[in-house]
Amino acid sequence: MKKLQQLLKSIDGKGYKAYKSIQGRYSFHRYEISVDYVQGDPFASPSKIRIVIPDAYRPIKDEWKQSKERNIYVADHIARSVAKAIQAVAKQLQGSGKSGLIHIDQPGQEILERTAVQIKNDKTIICLSVGLPANGRRINGKEAEKLFFTILPSILKHSIFSIKDEEIEQKVQLADQHIAIREKMKENNWIAFIADGAILPRESGVSNRPLKKAVPFESTKENRVKINLPHREEPLTGMAIKQGISLIVGGGYHGKSTLLQALERGVYHHIRGDGREYVLTDPDAVKIRAEDGRQVTSVNISAFINDLPHGQATTKFTTENASGSTSQATNVVEAIEAGTTTLLIDEDTSATNFMIRDARMQALVHQDKEPITPFIDKIKQLRDDLNVSTILVMGGSGDYFDVADEVIMMDQYKPFNVTDQAREIMKNHPVSRQSVMEKLTNDMNQRIFLPQSLNLQKGKKKKVQAKSLYTILMGTSTIQLQGVEQLVDASQTRAIAELLRYMEAKEILKQAKPLADLLDDIEKVMDNEGLQAFSPFPNQHPGDLARPRRFEIAACLNRMRTTKVQ
Ligand code: ADP
Ligand code: MG
């Protein structure tokens, strides 16, 4: 502590580079600060420090570390409290560039495994970014002293050192409840559970917070189930959606897409107060949408699309600019390749010609002239041959009644089970459309990515960096992830970028494994070593990564314009 103080005094007023001398570890009364990385100048990305708090000074009970899930929720809570304490002291320091900035990788509405706070056996580690203060390009030692000796201590005092055990206890209980709901879902083959009282709509298109004055969710009576949860007296009730094919219908603006969006996010867990804290979906559910313009590399979409004009092959379909239907077919096939068990589809973001072709159009345009086998002709095989369920929003076509196991109608934001009525209507209005049936197999698409796919070279350097939630720059190319809707946190994107670097450095693609096996390996590394395994400096400060699912990792590999496949 003294040492740092003296150092800061001695470099006061010197050129900014002299800050490099403070790299190292310093003991404080209740914690240790490790200055891992010092920025090159006041305008560069901020310096990285770690705060290490031994359990003696902030006891973390063994039972809180007992399960991986509990550990994640406790870390999440600490990260939130540090973020709040940082906000309370914001902008107290002065100077040029990023002087005085203090930042933690703050969680959003989802509770994700992240590196910002790490709970170890005997200590807690908090990773922060700080802008070391300067006047112009000269070191401002006084402000730096204030940063380390007044502001940081105050942040810690008002966060980690003042969190009550009961607060953490509540998070641990939520973790247990989420696990319990997931277990129950598995036992009963439910792919979704939406609790009564859940708030599904969001404040706005750009906000992930709950809409105020929303109509709370209320299950249909046919779908209502009861779940006994730990740490709760009354059983939780809500709507269960079974494996199979579920159709969500209803008039425009009655809440269909809102329900589906909540299900897309239900692969993650949400904080209490979010409104979706008891909305859970099959963790391997993948949103499928049309995504014209995307890159496609050697994907077998022949189950859906065949005999394109000019004889383009669809068993190894490759394009730099996919159409609505070919991109959506690709998204289905790639999701299956990566191991999905549930597809989530909304008519609003689908290509119509991929989803339906009615009897009249079949009569006019003969089968031989139409390359597309619409999804409606494959949805049952997905269920029966591959065990892949579908939840589909479709207000515009009754053709899907024929293939649905269950039909749910949204009416003024409330669901009604109208399966029987739909059956009745099918009887009275039979449809004469022909359907094409060919068996689907799991191995229809099994690609091995070649090592040169990961081309990080940019001039003389290797570079890969997440620019935003939906953009990764790799070498001289840009990977666009706008269509990957279940990527929800920029820290997940950063983790994927780090993973690309890791895979390149470790020459992982030389193992020539099929994509699904590769994803298994990556998940094993994350399980065993944590996300920091992908960081180039795993023992320093990998403080801004959050765990992506295998499907979002695959989505990135699939969209690289440099991908080459065996
Ligand atoms: P649809 O897909 O059926 O056309 P949306 O899901 O897009 O309808 O919903 C239409 C509007 O209604 C949106 O602005 C949405 O925020 C709002 N909304 C959805 N669910 C609710 C609800 N439970 N309470 C209040 N407003 C809602
Ligand atoms: Mg809609």
TrEMBL record:
Domain named MRB1590-like C-terminal is located at 463-566
Q: Which residues form the ATPase of the ABC class N-terminal domain?
A: 1-160
- Give the highest taxon in the source lineage: Bacteria
Read off the InterPro entries from this record: ABC_ATPase_C, ABC_ATPase_put, ABC_N, MRB1590-like_C, P-loop_NTPase
Q: Where is the ATPase of the ABC class C-terminal domain?
A: 165-444
- By its UniProt entry, which Pfam families does this protein fall under? ABC_ATPase (PF09818), ABC_N (PF20446), MRB1590_C (PF21117)
| Protein known as | Predicted ATPase of the ABC class
Query: What's the source species for this entry?
Result: Gracilibacillus orientalis
